[in-house]
Design brief:
Helix content is about 25%, strand content about 40%. The chain has about 150 residues and is of the alpha+beta class. It has two domains: about 70 residues, RimP-like superfamily, N-terminal (GMP Synthetase, Chain A, domain 3), CATH 3.30.300; about 60 residues, SH3 type barrels. About 20% of the residues are buried.
């Protein structure tokens, strides 16, 4: 049986919004009969253990009531961490000026991995001042993975 990703996503979004939290991202990973449902939440000043527990309890209860997941699963709720992933176009505006790492699906001038300072979103591309090569535009729809790069 295929997961109803849309219905699950709506429940998670509704609970996060009701609690004044940002839903950064959620994913289901692992085998279908015993997967991990990971939810990343954030708020100004960071999330507490209590925030994670609250979301976990509410999402878990609602998913059980709605019977959207027929198999065993593990529910994890956490902050996105200091090397936060960038998942939405708005993230590329919000975190402009930050150092990021980006992996793309199709090589750009023979390169798939880039690091540098995020300039922002330009149309359907992200603009990056890439280390060792200067300004570059990367098509948003070619981004496989992107995250903030923490500077020590």
């Amino acid at each position: 049986m295929e997961l109803d990703r849309e219905a699950i996503g709506k429940i998670i979004e509704r609970i996060a919004a009701r609690e004044g939290l940002e839903l950064v991202h959620w994913e289901a990973v692992g085998p279908q009969n015993n997967f991990v449902l990971r939810i990343y939440i954030d708020k100004p000043g960071g999330v507490s253990h209590g925030d994670c527990e609250l979301v976990s309890n509410q999402v878990g209860a609602l998913l059980d009531v709605e019977d959207l997941i027929p198999n065993r699963y593990i529910l994890e709720v956490s902050s996105p961490g200091i090397e936060r992933g960038l998942y939405k176009k708005a993230d590329y505006e919000r975190f402009s000026g930050s150092r990021i790492k980006v992996k793309v699906s199709e090589p750009i001038d023979g390169q798939r991995n880039f690091r540098g300072k995020l300039i922002g979103l330009v149309g359907e591309n992200i603009s990056l001042d890439a280390d060792g090569r200067g300004p570059i535009e990367i098509p948003y729809d070619q981004i496989v993975k992107a995250n903030i790069e923490y500077q020590f």
